[in-house]
Design brief:
This protein is α/β, with parallel strands linked by helices and 366 residues long. It contains 10 helices and 13 strands. It has a 7-stranded parallel beta sheet, sandwiched between helices. The chain has a two-stranded parallel ribbon with strand order 7-11. It has a two-stranded antiparallel ribbon with strand order 8-10.
Length: 366
């Protein structure tokens, strides 16, 4: 059985696609994430990847995740702390079985002096000077990241777009396919960069995004400040000689829109199905409640011969039936009503005669 491949940041944009690609190729996959498995580990199926919870910034949980793996694809990233995360990972990997480390980096990290680009270059230097087998693949911007940035910029009616700035976006799925090709036990060191099929200005990207989403915004070009924007205006993040990507930014937006529309239709259908099920359950519950109330009423109208009711109260027997022409002047004796003879005086029960003095007009028949 082949050794597993560890994917750090396996729940991110690139990591999710890479895990899916590796599994499609029949590879054993292990995910290192700061969050537990969605849905819980107890509900995981056998074909899902192994899941390890750990923090690359502190190193907690990392040694257990790297133990026994043959390759590590280090996709975990952030706006800050990439160098520290890379150091923690390499320390744990060096103490383990010295696996092959594949690192997706960024085009221009040796030139652009922003914190994120410098951290990427720092991780590359650690690999170059370390003891682990390594492979580095530099990429241009992802479609997904540019789309998220444009959506963030378009929150206001006035859309501020970086002036004199170009981008060469590539699909993250294509990068994942290339990383899956490199995820073997053989190191390749620095491989050729991976760039998108076209180079577009920030204004062109924003106009394409607005047309696809149907939004109306007024675009204003501004010279954004900072070392990162300065490097972008110089074109240090572009790889025109490596425009090997296939999916354009417009094609990505169209595919994403169709996917989201299909997802919305499926969600609405599932919600309507759930509503129908809830209505059927509510109807069945109402019928069962109605039947229970009818049964309770029927049982209440039945008079038992003796014994208390459901509240502990004594149940009296039903009154005696009086024939027409008769006058009910008798009194209950036990469970029977004692009626006087025709035209006679009322008769008292024996207990009354024995237990109290007679009254004028009482007639004793003893």
């Amino acid at each position: 059985m082949s050794t597993p491949i560890l994917v750090t940041g396996g729940t991110g944009t690139l990591g999710t696609l890479l895990v899916r690609e590796l599994q499609a190729r029949g590879r054993r996959v292990r995910v290192l994430s700061r969050k537990p498995r969605p849905g819980g580990s107890e509900n995981a199926s056998a074909d899902e990847p192994e899941w390890f919870v750990g923090d690359l910034l502190t190193g907690i949980g990392v040694p257990a995740a790297v133990d026994g793996v043959g390759t590590i694809v280090h996709c975990a990233t952030g706006t800050k702390g990439d160098a520290k995360m890379g150091a923690q990972l390499m320390i744990a990997a060096t103490r383990a079985s010295r696996p092959h480390v594949v690192f997706p980096s960024m085009v221009g990290c040796e030139v652009i002096r922003s914190d994120q680009y410098r951290d990427k270059r720092a991780v590359e230097r650690m690999l170059e000077s370390g003891e682990l087998p390594w492979t580095v693949l530099r990429c241009t911007h992802f479609h997904e990241h540019l789309e998220a940035e444009l959506a963030h910029t378009a929150r206001l009616p006035l859309m501020l777009v970086s002036a004199a700035t170009r981008f060469q976006p590539i699909a993250a799925a294509e990068v994942a396919e290339r990383l899956a090709d490199l995820s073997s036990g053989i190191q390749s060191h620095r491989v050729p960069d991976l760039g998108g099929p076209e180079i577009l200005t920030a204004v062109e990207l924003a106009a394409t995004w607005l047309a696809e989403t149907g939004r109306v915004r007024k675009m204003v070009e501004v010279n954004k400040r900072g070392k990162q924007y300065e490097g972008w205006r110089q074109g240090a993040h572009l790889a025109p000689e490596r425009a090997v990507g296939e999916q354009t930014f417009a094609a990505y937006l169209a595919a994403t829109r169709r996917f989201r529309e299909a997802e919305t239709v499926a969600f609405e259908a599932a919600r309507e199905q759930q509503k129908a099920t809830d209505r059927e359950l509510a109807k069945a519950a109402k019928q069962a409640e109605k039947a229970a109330r009818k049964t309770e009423r029927d049982q209440t109208h039945e008079f038992p011969s003796s014994g208390p009711d459901h509240l502990g109260r004594a149940i009296l027997p039903p009154p005696a039936t009086i024939e027409p022409g008769q006058q009910s002047t008798g009194r209950a004796q036990g469970d029977q009503a004692v009626l006087p003879p025709q035209g006679g005086s009322p008769m008292l029960p024996p207990d009354d005669r024995a237990g109290r003095p007679g009254k004028p007009g009482d007639v004793s028949t003893a």
